[in-house]
Amino acid sequence: MKRTKIKDLFAPSLIGSEVSVMGWVRSRRGNKHVQFVALNDGSTIRNIQIVLDMARFTDEQLKPVTTGSSIHVTGKLVESMGKGQTCEIQAETLEVFGTADETFPMQKKGHTLEFLREKAHLRPRTNTFGAILRIRSALAFAIHRFFQEKGFFYLHTPLITASDCEGAGAMFQVTTLPIDNPPRTEDGAVDYSADFFGKPTALTVSGQLEGELGATALGEIYTFGPTFRAENSNTPRHLAEFWMIEPEMAFYDIKDNMDLAEEFVKYCIRYALDHCREDIEFLQQMYDPDLIQLLEGVLASDFVRLSYTEGVKILEESGRKFEFPVYWGADLQSEHERYLVEEHFKRPVILTDYPKEIKAFYMKQNEDGKTVRAMDVLFPKIGEIIGGSEREASYDKLMERITTLGIPMKDMWWYLDTRRFGTVPHSGFGLGFERLVLFVTGMTNIRDVIPFPRTPKNAEF
Ligand code: 4AD
Ligand code: MG
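Output (structure tokens, whole complex):
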């Protein structure tokens, strides 16, 4: 079945030619002489107008052509007289693949985003979700392009793991044991030696630890895959299943790491502006009148680079009453991050050198004995978009941290081997893909930038 995609119809060279299009009807209107169908096939935000001369078609033929129905039309592409469209198709043949009755939930317009979340199986048929999903796809491609052009290798890290990278304990267990009656050892504990992998396993929270194995062999790698967190945080910025991009680079210190992170997010935003202009313009018009200005603003600015200690000082001296108190040692909340970015500096901020107590065990320890070489990239409206660090390259210092934190060594022997055999300074970071899509689309809830969101008490579709 050969068809022209609707996005390709708008090339001036096609005017006057016979075309064949297929798609879903957005609306139909008209009178007994002429009927107009707005058709969309998902290739673009634009609809093509189909003009049906009722001297050629019967009412019976048009009856199943309802909002949501799927059709195939052939005809001549002509310049349009109607305002807001450059061309339209004068239909010669009409075939209906499938009609849709009036219970089709995506009737013309005006649904709330909450309503659409409950209909996530059909929301890709709306303008909003068509635009978001096209932008998401383009950003995924941009990410691969960025790293491939730089000579990074795409490393596939496991999704099932026996180690907890972030040490936050928010993991989804993977088991084939019967949960209502698992085998038990003599002392009554669950006998994991009888489980599928012979030990407790879970879905990964991050591919970083295996990423470090790759970087200390191939030099520069990146991962791009799903990660899972069982934190019970019902916020507009958290998902239980989200996609993360984690570059990891041998011979990079924290400064190199910051340079790469800044170049990388800017590349992605530029790519979306250059390749998804119409979709971004649509979202700007519908949801955020300042969207393009905000994106361009980020591209034009040098990110502020500031230590956690200085950041906390600014927050303490701001005179602002925050919901969560700020003091040296506190984990920053998104209200604090956004104050620094949106009100104080008015551009993205890279905050570094956090207290070691609030960061993961693998980060390089600073001379002061109190802080580690962490870096979080903070964005307007989003807060933390990237988290990363220079890694602790010294075997002894890393071991000391692992011991202090009581991390079971038996899970870590392979990781420690990177520090035993040819250890090198190295760094990396993780970008939350949905947070990037959130920023670029101007949406405000992370559930609206992934096709099928997974959040506490919700795994529908
Ligand atoms: O800061 P995080 O937890 O860092 C890591 O996982 C490191 N292992 C990354 C590395 O250095 N290789 O997560 C990284 C990013 C966050 O900055 C945020 O953008 C995103 O992942 N993220 C989430 N996105 C959506 N839902 C969640 N529950 C998220 N948790 C983290
Ligand atoms: Mg983080």
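The CA atoms of residues 135 and 277 lie 9 Å apart.
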